[in-house]
Design brief:
Layout (H helix, E strand, L loop, with lengths): L1 H23 L3 E3 L2 E4 L2 E9 L5 E11 L4 E3 L7 E8 L4 E2 L2 E13 L5 E8 L4 E8 L3 E8 L4
Amino acid sequence: MRKLWMAGVLAVVVVGLLTTTAAVAGWFWDDPAWKIGDTEVHFLWAVDNPNGDYRSQIGLVHPKGVEVELLTPSTKTDRAYDVASPQLKVTRKGVEIQGVFQIKAKKGADANVLAEIRTADGVLLASGNGRTNGKIVLSAVVPQDD
C-alpha cells in the first residue's frame, strides 16, 4: 500500500514539474476533460509559440455503449466532442479510447504541439507530438475499477 501511495505522490510531483517547466518555457496548456466510466480523463495540449492565436478541436473516440460525460464545456475557440466507435472495445484492462487533437493556428502562426491523455491524478495514458494545423491521434486504455 505504501508503494502505491508513493507512486501517486510521485505522479503528482512529476505532473507539477512538467506543467511548471512548460509554463516557464512558453508553452500554453488546454484541458478538456471527460468522465469515462468511473475514471476522469484529461486531454492536454500545449504549443511552444506564445505569439500565436489558436483554436482547438479535441475529440474522444470511445466504444459504443460506454458511458461518457464531457466535464468541460466547449467555448468559441475550443471545441470538445465525443464519438462512439464499433472498433474500440472494453477489455479486462479497461476502456480503449482514442484522442484526436486538432490545433489550428490563426494568422499563419506555426508551432510545435504536445498532446497528452492523463487521468485526473496525473497518470500518463498516452502522449505524442506534431505541428499546428495537423492532427495528432493518441490511443490509450482507461483503467476502470472492478
